[in-house]
Amino acid sequence: MLYERLRSALFALEPETAHVLSLRALKTLERIGCIRQSEADAACARTVMGIRFPNPVGLAAGLDKNGAYIDALGALGFGFVEVGTVTPRPQPGNPKPRVFRLPRANALINRLGFNNEGVDRLVENVQRAQWRGVLGINIGKNFSTPLEHALDDYVACLHKVYALASYVTVNISSPNTKGLRDLQGADHLEMLLAGLARERETLADRHGRRVPLALKVAPDLDERQIAAIAELTQKHRMDAIIATNTTLDRDAVSGLPHAGEAGGLSGAPLMRKSTEVTRQLARALGGALPLIGVGGILSGADAREKIAAGASLVQIYTGLIYRGPRLVGECVEALCGPASNMQPAPAAR
Length: 349
Known about the structure:
Blueprint: H1 2-10, H2 15-31, E1 46-48, E2 51-53, E3 57-59, H3 70-74, E4 80-86, E5 99-102, E6 107-110, H4 119-128, E7 134-139, H5 150-161, E8 167-171, H6 186-207, E9 213-217, H7 223-235, E10 240-243, E11 264-267, H8 271-285, E12 291-294, H9 300-308, E13 313-316, H10 318-323, H11 326-336
Parallel strand pairs: 3-4, 3-13, 4-7, 7-8, 8-9, 9-10, 10-12, 12-13
Antiparallel strand pairs: 1-2, 5-6, 6-11
Helix pairs in contact: 5-6, 6-7, 7-8, 9-11
C-alpha cells in the first residue's frame, strides 16, 4: 500500500528523474538501517552455473548501470543482483527523452543506449560495496565501436570485471545500440563466443577461478536463430542463457500513448513472447545449459510460468517499477513457499 501511494508521486515525474530519485532514496534508507535483507531460507537455494543462489529471484541488468546501488538493492531480498550494462568507455547514451511509461499496459519503452560511466567507474563502485551476495556484471560494446571490433570491447570489459563478478553476462540483444543485435547472427556469434571463451580460459588460469559466462538474447528471434544460439553456446562452453531482453514488437500495446516510440518494450506485454523464447531454447538445449527467465514478470504466477517454461532462475526489472519491492518477496514465495507446487530446480552447471 505504501508503494502504491509513493508510485503516484513518482509517476508524476519524468521517468529518468523518478528512477534516479528512487535509487537515491533507497540508498539512504539502506544506510540508516531502514531496510535489511532477512535471513535466507536454505530450502529456497538453487545451484546454477556452479553458483549457489540463496533464492531464484534476481534483479535484471539496467536498473543500476554503474553498480552504484548494490548494497541498497541487495537488501531488498534478491537472490542475486545484476548490474550494468557497462561499456569500456563512458558514454551518454541516446538523446532524451528516452524512457516512456505505458501505465495502462504495465509497460515501459526505453531507448537509453547503454548510458553508463564506463567500466572503470563500475569497478570502483563494486569494490566499495559491502554486499556479498551473488553479483552478475553485464557487459556490452560502445556505440562508436564498429561491429567487426565488438569482441575487443567485450574482452576489455571482461578483463576489468572478472575478479569481481560471480558471473558475467554478455549483452548482444539490446535494441538501442545500432547493429548490436547483428551479433546474434551465427557468423558474428561464432567469432564473439570463440574469442570470449579463449579469454575466459586465460583469465581463469590467471585468477585460479573460472567465472561463468551467460549470454543475454532478444525475444525477437525465429526458430533458426534460436537453434543456432543453442548450438553455439554449447560449442563454446557458455554457462547460461538469459532470455530475454526487451522487444521491438508493438502488437500488444498498439494504440496506447507512447506505443510508437522507438526503443525496447518491457513489462507485462513482453511476458508471452519472452516466455515462448525461453520454452523454445529449453527444448533446443535439452538441459545442456540453464536458462534465466526475464521479461514481463509482474506477479508470483508469472515467475512460476518462467520456471515451468524451462528457466532455473528468474529476474525482474519493470515489474519492480510497477509493483515495488514487495514483488521480490511475492516471487520468492511463489517459487519457494509452502503454497508452491514446484520442486526446486535441479542443480545445473
